[in-house]
Amino acid sequence: MKTLKVLTSIALLTVALPFSQIDTVNDSNTVKAATKAGYPTSKYRKGAPKKFSNCKTVNKYYPYGITYNHVSYAKSLDRDKDKMACEAKDMVFKTWMAKN
Fold first, then answer.
1. 56 in Cβ contact with 26 (< 8 Å)
2. 10's torsion region: left (phi>0), alpha (psi -120 to 50) or beta?
3. How much is the average pLDDT of 39-54?
4. Using one digit for the tens of pLDDT, what is the confidence trace for 2-42?
5. Do residues 38 and 96 make contact, with C-beta atoms less than 8 angstroms apart?
6. Which helix (H) or strand (E) holds 55?
7. Least CB-packed of 26, 31, 41, 71 within 10 Å?
């Protein structure tokens, strides 16, 4: 009976893992997701360029955008001056995103 409870707990934990812990595939290379699903990130993704010319290229590497703490952040990419560049529509900056 104890073994069944332990196995059930392990199964529930594997289902409940956040999306940021799941590997994603990008251009035939498997990389860790750089952000919580659906939110801009401040973390640099290995292999990504450090400078971007427009949001289309940013979103290839960071689909939810980047925050002002990100190495690639540029004021020219942040049109609405809300500390997030190339973010999804109607996204509102929260302080925890600065270290996401």
1. no
2. alpha
3. 95
4. 655 555 555 544 444 444 443 343 444 434 445 567 899 99
5. no
6. helix 55-61
7. 71
Residue with tokens 């997030």: 84
Half-sphere exposure of residue 94, counting CA atoms within 13 Å on the CB side?
8
Q: How many CB atoms lie within 10 A of CB 12?
A: 9
29-32 and 66-67 beta bridge pairing: unpaired
Q: Say how many residues make up the chain.
A: 100
Tokens of 93: 């900056």
Residue spans per domain, the chain: 2-99
β-partners of residue 29 are 26
Tell me whether strands 66-67 and 23-26 are parallel, antiparallel or unpaired.
Answer: unpaired
The residue to which tokens 């900056």 are assigned: 93
